[in-house]
């Protein structure tokens, strides 16, 4: 089959009518058009059809029109060209100057993958950073493991560097991270710098500051930025006139107020705008509503919506289906009524009712609860767990664990077995079991004692230290004080779930006791954000405390 003439436009915008045109053979046509394409490539190096993440040589070859037509069957030419034309890049790169980031040791030991988080920018590692990595690699702590992982990553990058001269920089995408476009530079020669005499020259932090000062003078045409998790280090750098930033990639959210709350208030004119387009039907004791409108893009699966207006009936529902521009809402079970009490516990406000609907739904495998002290997180989780373990026989037992981070000074080693060592950390469990035991009043003292013994036999207390490698089958797992967990620890716990297991994560993001963790980088925030919209997961933020008026007032003013 004769070849059609090469188009005058670039391949991503080729006219499909050119395929039906008769072939014309011109010896000089190919060379002249190739020169034109070469000039166009030089003037416009960033083509829309050029995928940098998949390797440059293959796509540059395919961008040539005649080779593009030879490599595709005639029946698929039109479809493939249209696909390449309408495809959008996943991520737009910044158009500013390429920066040179100098990494502090604590960044590498905080996130071993930080080398691949700076996109097209370059990274510089002072020699003192490598020395500190070497001195912190021993031990079984997470910091030591991260230091060893960073050393292995650096070794792999150096091994893939085929050039003899390392001073030109090492490509960071050499080990398969195609999204990275920068280079890694090591300090290969002494750098001359001048710092104030009041700063001790032998301290590692001051040596890193000196390297940043020398690089700023050496590369005056590009920004040189220090990246450190140490606040004092950043303050000293800014006092010396140097650019310094915190490592932001570990933060799930910049502001804790942006965290997904799990509930959405419908506007007051909701029924006026949607009355004609709403479909409703009954199934059992629940009512379903199908509606469409501008509110649909704002909703997520298992998100709660409520409508409260004076003089009008209230609506409390949960999103069960989102299909195109329509959404299906399902009304909730009212756990505020005594007839629907869970282990004798009734909910006292709107958010508690939302949470109890998630805790008692067998289709929900993962529940996250956040809220201030006294909002009823532990009590509701235990009540729902006891009902589903002892009454419904849905799960075999309750497993409760928490991060053992003390508020004050540590009291030292604790004697006894694993459960005895975890006993002092489980005061919240004992307090809530005491409340739940009082709900049974008809059995007498002997009956309550037997019930307490049965409850204790179905609740197991486990430590986080021994969770790796385990698999929980048909268990009801409660993770208390989850705000003190790192995202890596949270992933370790959630991946322990086997068939039929439900996990409940609870915590108060305003009470983080773990060093180096904030509201934005907490494992609880990480889990809430990642599981948002999953059909088998749900989240609710409890708004009002129900412990006592004293606790509520203290939460607000202290």
Strand content: 15-25%
Give the overall pLDDT as a whole number: 79
What is the radius of gyration? Answer: 31 Å
N-to-C span: 82 Å
Net shape: globular
Put simply, the count of helices is: 18
Number of strands: 18
Main beta sheet: 6 strands, mixed
User: Which class of secondary structure composition applies to the elements?
Assistant: alpha/beta
Relative helix content:
25-40%
Low-confidence stretches: 24-34, 36-92
Instruction: Give, in spatial order, the strands making up the sheet with the most strands.
Output: 3-4-2-1-5-6
Write structural notes for this entry.
The protein is globular, with a radius of gyration of 31 Å. The chain has helices at about 25-45, 55-60, 65-70, 75-85, 105-110, 125-135, 140-160, 205-220, 230-240, 270-275, 350-360, 375-390, 420, 425-440, 445-455, 485-495, 525-530, 550-555; strands at about 100-105, 120-125, 170, 185, 225, 245, 265, 280-285, 285-290, 305, 315-325, 325-330, 365-370, 395-400, 460, 475-480, 500-505, 535-540. The chain is of the alpha/beta class. The chain contains 18 helices and 18 strands. The N and C termini lie far apart (about 80 Å). The strands form 3 sheets. Strands 3-4-2-1-5-6 form a 6-stranded mixed beta sheet. Strands 7-10-11-12-9-8 form a 6-stranded mixed beta sheet, with no helix packed on it. Helix 11 packs parallel to helix 12 (about 375-390), helix 12 (about 375-390) packs across helix 14 and helix 16 (about 485-495) crosses helix 17 (about 525-530). Helix content is about 35%, strand content about 15%. Residues about 25-35 and about 35-90 have low confidence and may be disordered.
């Amino acid at each position: 089959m004769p070849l059609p003439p090469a188009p005058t436009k670039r391949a991503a915008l080729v006219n499909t009518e050119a395929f039906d045109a008769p072939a014309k053979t011109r010896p000089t046509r190919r060379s002249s058009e190739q020169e034109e394409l070469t000039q166009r490539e030089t003037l416009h190096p960033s083509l829309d059809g050029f995928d940098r993440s998949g390797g440059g040589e293959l796509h540059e070859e395919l961008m040539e029109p005649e080779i593009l037509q030879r490599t595709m069957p005639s029946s698929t030419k039109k479809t493939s060209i249209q696909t390449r034309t309408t495809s959008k890049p996943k991520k737009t790169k910044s158009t500013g100057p390429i920066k040179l980031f100098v990494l502090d040791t604590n960044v590498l030991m905080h996130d071993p993958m930080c080398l691949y988080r700076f996109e097209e920018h370059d990274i510089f590692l002072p020699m003192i950073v490598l020395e500190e990595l070497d001195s912190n690699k021993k031990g079984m702590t997470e910091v030591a493991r991260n230091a060893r992982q960073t050393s292995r990553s650096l070794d792999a990058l150096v091994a893939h560097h085929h050039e003899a001269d390392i001073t030109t920089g090492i490509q960071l995408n050499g080990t398969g991270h195609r999204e990275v476009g920068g280079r890694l530079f090591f300090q290969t020669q002494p750098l001359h710098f001048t710092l104030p005499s009041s700063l001790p020259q032998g301290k590692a932090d001051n040596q890193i500051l000196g390297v940043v000062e020398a690089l700023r003078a050496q590369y005056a045409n590009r920004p040189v930025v220090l990246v450190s998790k140490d606040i004092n280090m950043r303050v000293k750098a800014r006092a010396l006139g140097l650019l310094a930033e915190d490592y932001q990639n570990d933060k799930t959210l910049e502001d804790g107020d942006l965290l997904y709350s799990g509930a959405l208030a419908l506007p007051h004119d909701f029924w006026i705008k949607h009355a004609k387009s709403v479909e409703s039907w009954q199934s059992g004791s629940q009512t379903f509503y199908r509606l469409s409108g501008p509110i649909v893009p704002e909703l997520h699966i298992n998100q709660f919506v409520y409508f409260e207006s004076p003089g009008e009936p209230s609506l409390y529902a949960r999103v069960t289906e989102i299909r195109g521009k329509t959404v299906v809402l399902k009304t909730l079970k009212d756990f505020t009524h005594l007839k629907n009490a869970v282990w004798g516990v009734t909910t006292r406000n709107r958010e508690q009712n939302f949470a109890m609907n998630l805790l008692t739904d067998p289709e929900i495998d993962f529940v996250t609860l956040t809220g201030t002290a006294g909002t009823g997180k532990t009590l509701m989780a235990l009540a729902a767990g006891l009902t589903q373990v002892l009454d419904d026989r849905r799960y075999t037992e309750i497993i409760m664990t928490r991060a053992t981070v003390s508020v004050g000074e540590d009291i030292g080693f604790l004697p006894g077995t694993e459960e005895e060592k975890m006993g002092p950390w489980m005061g919240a469990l004992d307090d809530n079991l005491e409340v739940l035991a009082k709900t049974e009043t008809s059995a007498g003292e002997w009956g309550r004692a037997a019930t307490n013994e049965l409850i204790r036999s179905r609740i197991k207390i486990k430590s986080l230290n021994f969770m790796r490698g385990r698999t929980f089958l048909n268990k009801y797992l409660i993770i208390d004080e989850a705000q003190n967990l790192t995202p890596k620890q949270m992933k370790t716990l959630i991946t322990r779930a086997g068939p039929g297991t439900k996990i409940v994560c609870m915590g108060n993001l305003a009470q983080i006791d773990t060093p180096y963790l904030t509201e934005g980088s907490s494992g609880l925030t990480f889990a809430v954000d990642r599981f948002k919209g999953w059909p088998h997961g749900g989240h609710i933020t409890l708004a009002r405390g129900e412990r006592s008026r004293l606790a509520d007032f203290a939460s607000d003013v202290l």
